[in-house]
Amino acid sequence: MSQAAQVPVWVTITASFGVGGFVGNLISTWLTSRAQRKNWLRDNKKQEWRELIAVLSQSVHRILQNTEDFRFEGIVTISGEQEKEQAKHLLEADLEARRVIEDRIFISSRVQSENVLERWRLIAAEKDIGRILEYWNHLHTALVDFAHKDLGIKS
Where are the alpha helices (DSSP H) in 3-128? Predict the structure, then answer.
């Protein structure tokens, strides 16, 4: 008789379940881990998009609050102290916006490829409120679209 015929059937069956169960557990663990990583990455991207849009929105509103609108008021006189205070607020808003644009980790390649920093610089350098609003509306719409595409959200 051959060696295989001498091994009891119950040993063969038990061994096959043990190896099959082990391989099954490995595959199940791998698939679960992969799904968890995908969800973790998506959650982090979502958080970064949310932070980016929120900080840029706050910054543009601070810029608008501290930019004189000469279209409706004619000549406006402000003191040197008021001018320094406005300049300080404008600089703080610009720096905060640049910081949040530059410190993205999970969405950095998309932010760079879409020239978000350059688009922000146009807003921060502009002195005309109408143009600031126009630039911001375009950038905001683009950011929401980028986020939707990046997160796989149908809009």
Answer: 3-6, 9-65, 70-73, 80-102, 108-113, 116-125
How far is 100 from 117, CA to CA, in rounded Å? Answer: 10
- pLDDT of 118 > 70? The answer is yes
Note the pLDDT tens digit of each residue in 29-62.
877 888 888 999 999 999 999 999 999 999 999 9
Distance CA 133, CA 64 (A): 8
Rounded to two decimals, what is the model's pTM? 0.74
Encoded tokens for 141: 């719409």
φ, ψ dihedrals at 126, nearest 5°: -75, 145
Any idea which of 29-33, 61-65, 94-98, 129-133 has the lowest mean pLDDT? 29-33
CA–CA separation, 26 and 152 (whole Å): 29
Taking the C-alpha atoms of residue 10 and residue 18, their distance in angstroms, rounded to an integer, is: 12
